[in-house]
Structure formats: structure tokens, C-alpha cells
Design goal:
five-stranded mixed β-sheet, seven-stranded mixed β-sheet
Length: about 250
């Protein structure tokens, strides 16, 4: 059976980020530093990049939220620190097409980028609340995902990508959201990204077994997705939690 390692990559840090945007109605008024996370799957001779991170500081401050981005957090530098160049990446998976997850797709010319059919359809005409997240043409912007339209490998639903690696359809945060389920020596890890933005979304609070993000399209789909996740994985890896970086890789080194 194929076994892989998963390495988190910090692409930037939102500054003074409103926590309750990630923990629906909980933590209101609490300002936190929130990382923007991509993941590298390594093993069996493969290097698979899950999401490509965000813009630089100036753009993020102007159009979204202030971020801190050191030189080591820039995608090509982060990969170089792992001994990799763009040509070493076998393929890319976009969990979804929000600006902070697909901004650097164009740094990997010629590489297949896997995206869900429903995500591409929704990104073309999202609900108004999500216009800024997609940098939509409806508000006069140029969506970053459109820079690499010719590289997309469009999938529909759950798909096996490689032995031990599956694309899993987990809508809610967006209608075409996908996670990546990975076999490791420590069990099955789901790279859940913004479907489960923080560990506490999965751990829940009070009467809530799982706590949705406030950024979602369909709350009912969020709960159905949580039921699906419970059945398929042993561990989750979120999209915006600093605790992820308490380990250099997953499963953790012994």
C-alpha cells in the first residue's frame, strides 16, 4: 500500500484576523494571527501540491486583509527550502478557487491542476457575498484562477488521483470544495483546508459536535460533509490554524 508524508507550507499570515469568521458566532471580537496554508504530499516518487497560496502583502492589504509574508513564505522560496523547483511538482490540487488558495497557480506552467466541476461553475458566478474571495469579474476584478484555465483537469465528485491519494468532494464552504485523502503510516489524513479551517471546527464547542465556518454557501451541506468526513479519515488537516505548524510533517516524526 502506498504511504505518503504531508508537509504544511505557510504562505502568509493574516494579521488581526476576526476569529469568528472561522468559528461561526464563537470568538466574536477576538483578533488572531491566522496562517494561510498549502500542503505538499511526498512519497512514491511524487510531489503533489495542494493549493498554491495567496498574493503578496500589498495586494492583500488593498483588496482583502493585511497579511505578513516573509521571503520564506513565498511559494517558490518555500518549495526551494524543501529542495524543490516548480518542475519537480507532479500536479496541483486546488481545494477551491478563493484567492488565497490558487493565487500562485501560474508559477507552475504546464502542470495539471485538479479542480471540481462545480467549483469552476460557481467561481464564474458566485453569490455576491463571495465576490471578493474569488476576485470576481462582477466587481471589476480579474480572478486569479483564470490565469491557468488551460491547465485545469476538471473532476466531478470523488476521484482516485494516485494509489493512496483520493480527491474527496466535501461541499459547504463552497459548492465545489474538495479535500485530499492521503494514506500514511499513521493512518488516513484528510487535507480539509477551509472546509475545516481550524482544529476547533472539527472538535466542536458546547452543543456543537462540529462548528462550521461563518464563510459558507450552504450550511446544510456543511453538516452533511462533516458526516461524510467522520466515515473516511482518521485525522484532519485544516486550512487556517497555527497549530498545524507544531509538526514539520504528518504523520509526526517519531
Amino acid at each position: 500500500m502506498a504511504k505518503y508524508k504531508i508537509i504544511p507550507i505557510k504562505c502568509g499570515e493574516f494579521q488581526q484576523h476576526e476569529k469568528s469568521t472561522l468559528t461561526y458566532f464563537y470568538g466574536y471580537g477576538e483578533k488572531i494571527i491566522t496562517p494561510i496554508i498549502a500542503y505538499l504530499i511526498r512519497g512514491e516518487g511524487l510531489n503533489i501540491l495542494v493549493d498554491t497560496g495567496c498574493s503578496g502583502e500589498e495586494w492583500a492589504k488593498k483588496y482583502h486583509h493585511p497579511i505578513k509574508q516573509t521571503e520564506d513564505m513565498k511559494m517558490l522560496n518555500a518549495l526551494a527550502n524543501l529542495g524543490l523547483q516548480p518542475d519537480d511538482i507532479d500536479c496541483i490540487v486546488n481545494t477551491h478557487l478563493h484567492w488565497d488558495h490558487c493565487w500562485n497557480n501560474d508559477l507552475f506552467p504546464g502542470k495539471k491542476i485538479y479542480v471540481q466541476k462545480k467549483e469552476l461553475e460557481f467561481a464564474e458566478n458566485p453569490i455576491p457575498m463571495q465576490y471578493p474571495y474569488y476576485e470576481s469579474e462582477q466587481i471589476g476584478m480579474q480572478p486569479p484562477y483564470k490565469k491557468t484555465m488551460d491547465q485545469y483537469e476538471v473532476v466531478d465528485g470523488d476521484v482516485n488521483l494516485y494509489p493512496g491519494i483520493d480527491l474527496v468532494f466535501i461541499p459547504g464552504h463552497t459548492p465545489g470544495f474538495q479535500g485530499v485523502l492521503v494514506d500514511t503510516e499513521g493512518g488516513k489524513y484528510l487535507i480539509a483546508s477551509d472546509c475545516i479551517g481550524r482544529f476547533e471546527n472539527w472538535e466542536g464547542v458546547g452543543i456543537h459536535k462540529h462548528l462550521p465556518s461563518a464563510i459558507h454557501v450552504d450550511l446544510k451541506e456543511c453538516y452533511a460533509t462533516y458526516e461524510k468526513i467522520e466515515k473516511i479519515c482518521d485525522y484532519i488537516l485544516p486550512g487556517h490554524d497555527m497549530k498545524v505548524f507544531e509538526q514539520d510533517e504528518y504523520p509526526p516524526k517519531k
